[in-house]
Amino acid sequence: MKYYLIAGEASGDLHASHLMAELKRLDAEARFRCIGGDMMQAEGGDLLCHYRHLAYMGVWPVLTHLGTILRAMGRCRKDVARWQPDVLILVDYPGFNLGMAKWVKRHTRIPVFYYISPKIWAWKEYRIKSIRRYVDALFSILPFEPEWFRSRHGYQVDYVGNPTMDEVTAFLDAHPASPQRFRAENKLSDRPIIALLAGSRRQEIRDNLSRMVRATAGLESDYQMVVAGAPGIEAGYYARCANGQPLQVVYGQTYALLQHSAAALVTSGTATLETALFRVPQVVCYYMRIGRLANWGRPWLIKTPYVSLVNLVAGEEVVPELIGAEMNPVRVREELDRILPGAPDRETMLQGYGRMAEKLGSPGAPAHCAEAILNRLKAM
Q: Which of 13, 161, 287, 298 could lock onto 327 through a cystine, CB 3.0 to 4.6 A?
């Protein structure tokens, strides 16, 4: 069969590449065209456009690059119409992908499947109208989503498992813990590590890392603070954000860093889930410049009781969430002190991680999704 996939960012490239590998396993004649990245290309995808030319987030970056995005969508429409795939598979990236779904359903007979549901339970719930009209099947990676879509909108969603579970499990199977080697390779001391995962964008890093570093001031004699470096962010930038405080940066080793960490400060996102699956106690913290306003408007802006994936999946407060004005050095330090080795809340959090992992289920999300896609296509 011919599969056309669209992923607009690094995480989508990763998840889509694993899905492609499973589709190839089940379909010996699988062929792929895609908008994606290096990992999808390595799995045999014929790349129309690399996601790096489309990965804009936030209102202003999107507006200033709107022409680029619209041109890419136009090229994609023509390419889909010319190639006539058996299915269009959309991976996250809802702004672009729902626009493509609309065009494909209006101008072709190609079925549209969606892997990794848009997070409309958190914001932009109005997108359910587009999903209803233009998406033939939606495959979820969060176990609470099927019930949310069913009870709130009467829309069927299939939970296929969570790919982060697959990725962490595969890493742990392939990389037994070796603290001495990890420290030697990265020129780290023998002190326990507090991992700082401050995000991937410059403004995000600037706003969060400086507060994380201030929160850990005074712990240097017992711990070493190590930053998970983001691609394209030079070490000097981290140093400037740290205001001269001692810390080290490791690149391309986030999983290894978590594997060898005693605790972590983590910005909200998939990193919170990864940290939990590595069983590293964490404080979720995300600063916003409109902090007080964000806290005041949260009941209207965010329609869920939690913002971290750990708490959302668990359905309870497993990890503390310091968002907006609450993300200040004093509050971060208070929560961090409660989860360091020997602290009172550490074991309670680890037990909560276990309950969360049970809800995620076993590894195998890409395989389950590939099977579901082929079964749906056969039934059409």
A: 287
pLDDT 10s per residue in the chain (380 long)?
999 999 988 889 999 999 999 999 999 999 999 999 999 999 999 999 888 766 545 544 555 555 566 677 788 999 999 999 999 999 998 989 999 999 999 999 999 999 999 999 988 899 999 999 999 999 999 999 999 999 999 999 999 999 999 999 999 999 999 999 999 999 999 999 999 999 888 888 999 999 999 999 999 999 999 999 988 889 999 999 988 787 899 999 999 999 999 999 999 789 999 999 999 999 999 987 544 444 444 454 556 789 899 999 999 999 999 998 899 999 999 999 999 999 989 999 999 999 999 999 999 999 999 999 999 999 98
Amino acid at 378: K
- pTM (whole model) above 0.70: yes
Please, are residues 196 and 258 in contact by the beta-carbon 8 Å criterion? no
Distance CA 138, CA 156 (A): 8
Which position has the token pair 């290096």?
A: 38
- 31-36 sheet: strands from edge to edge: 45-50, 31-36, 2-7, 87-91, 112-115, 137-140, 158-159
CA atoms within 13 A on the CB side of 254: 21
CB atoms within 10 A of CB 377: 17
Q: Report d(CA 288, CA 318) in Å as an integer.
A: 22
Helix (H, G, I), strand (E, B) or coil at 66: helix
Domains of the chain, CATH where assigned: 2-161+364-379 (3.40.50.2000), 167-360 (3.40.50.2000)
